[in-house]
Amino acid sequence: MSDPAIFIMHIAYKIGVYGIAALSLNIEYGYTGLSNFGKAAFLMIGAYTAAIALENGLHPVIAIILSVIISGVIGLLASAFTLKFREDYLAITLLAFAEITRLIIRSFDDSAKALTRLITGMENYVNIFGGVHGKVVRSFISIIGDYRLYNVAQLCLAYGFLIFSYIFVKLLLDSPYGRVLRAIREDELASQTLGKETWRYKLQVIILGSMLAGLAGALIAQFEGYISPESFQPHLTFAIWMMVILGGVGNNLGVILGAALVESIEAAALFIKGFLGYLPLDPINIQWIFVGISIIVIVAFKPKGLVEERPIKTPAMEVAIAGSTRD
Amino acid sequence: MISGVVQRDSGEIWFMKERIDGLQPFKIYAKGIVRSFQIPRLFWRLTVLDNMLIAAREFIGESFTGTLFRRGKWVSEERKLVDKALDILRLLGLSESAFRFAYQLSGGQMKLLEIGRALMADPKLLLLDEPTAGVHPKLAQDIFRKIEEIRRIYGTAVFVIEHRVETLFSYADWVYVMDNGSLIYSGKPSGVVLDARVQKAYLGDIYVA
After folding, report:
1. What would the pLDDT profile of B103-118 be if each residue is shown by its tens digit?
2. pTM
3. Which end of chain B, N or C, is surrounded by fewer C-beta atoms within 10 Å?
C-alpha cells in the first residue's frame, strides 16, 4: 500500500460495493420496513459461492450469476417461515441465521473430516469452505503487470454493477410497486384491508435484497482475494445499517452517500493509525469512535439522514403536481 | 370482523350470496367490502394522493413483473387513477392537501381521507368505523353530509358504526342497536327511542315509564 493512488482506489472500490449492499438493505428496511439483521450472511453466501465457483474453473459471469441466485434462494428459505408473523421475529431469525451460517462455514470442513473418519475409518482431507483458515479467491479480472490498470478495471466493474443496481432499484421502486412497499412499512394491516397480499411483497423484497447482497459479496471476495468467516461477523451487518441510517432511510442516493461516508471513516481510521503508533488504542476502535460521533451529529441535526426520503415519483404524479401548482 | 381483521368466534358471515367468514383481509377487499378505521390508520409518511392510489383495484403497476415489464400500461393507467383520486379528494374538500403528507392533516381531514381511500377501491359495501369519533360536532355534520353525497353519487351501500346517534339518525335508512354483543333493535331510526329494550339498555330502568 505504498502507492497512494492504489490506496484511494481501494477505498473507492469498497464504496462502490458497499453501495450495492446499502441499496439492498434500503429496499428491505428503507422501503418495506423489514429489519434484516442478517445482511452479512448474504454477503458471505455470495462471497463463498463466487469463490467456490471460480475455484472450480467456472467463468466469472457464471460465478456472479450463481452467487446472486444462491443468495436469493437462501434468503427465501431463511425468511419464508417468519414473514407471516410479526416483524421482530424476522429480525431475530435473520440475526441468528447469519451467525449460524457463519459458524457452519467455519466448522464444516473439520466436521466433515471427522465424520468420514468416524464412519469409514479413512483420513479424508475435506476442503470446501476452508474453515477458519479462509479461502483464497481468484480475481474476476486478470491483468498482469500494471497494478494500477488492474485497479482501474476493478473500479469499472464495481461501479458498473452499482449503476446497474441503482437504475434497477429506481425503476422498480419509483412506481406503484414502491408505493405499496412504503404502505406496508407504514401500516401493514391497513394495506391488507386495501387488498394487498403483504407477505408476498415482503418475500419478494427479501429475495431481491438477498440477491443484491450476494452480488456485493461476490465482488468483495474477488477483489480482496481472500475471505474467511471472520470477515462476515455481525459488525459488518451493523456497518451496512449505519450506511443506510446515516445516508437517509428510504433514499437510494442517500444510502450510497452513507456507504461513502462509513467507508471513508474506515479509511481515515486506517490512515490515522500510522500517526498513533504509540497510543494504547487499537485503530479499529478509532473507526467506531468516528462512526459513533457521526451518528450523534447526524441524528441531532438531520434525523432523517443526509438525504431525506422523497415522495414516490411516477410520470402521472409529475403531471398531477404540475397541474396543482398551475391552479 | 366482517373485514377479516378480527376472526369470529362463532357464526357465519355472508355477503352477496357468498360466505366470507375466515377469509383474510385482502380477500374480503377483493369481494368488494372496504373499511375505514376508527383511529385513522393512514400511511403517514406518504402523500395524501399516494394514500388514495394505494387503494386502487387491480392496478398492474403494483405487481413485481408489471412494474418492470409493462411500464407503458401502468403509466397510462395511473394517469386515470390520479384523476379519479383527485375527483374524490375534491368531493371531500381535500384537494388542497393532495401533495401534503398524511401526518400533516388535521384530525377531521384524516377521517375524511380514511373514507376517501376506501372509496377509491370502488366498494360495494363501505364499512365506516365511527367516522366522526373525536371530531368537532359541526365537522361531524359535514362528514355525514359527505357520506350522504357519496351514497348518492357512487351508489355504495354504507354501514356505519357510530355513537353520535343524534347526528346519524337524520341520515340513516335503517338502524341496528346492539347491547352486550347482541342485537336488540333493528328498524327505522324514528322507532329507536320508543323501543323499550333500547331505553332499558341505554337509559336505565328509571326512565322507562
Report:
1. 998 888 888 898 889 8
2. 0.88
3. C
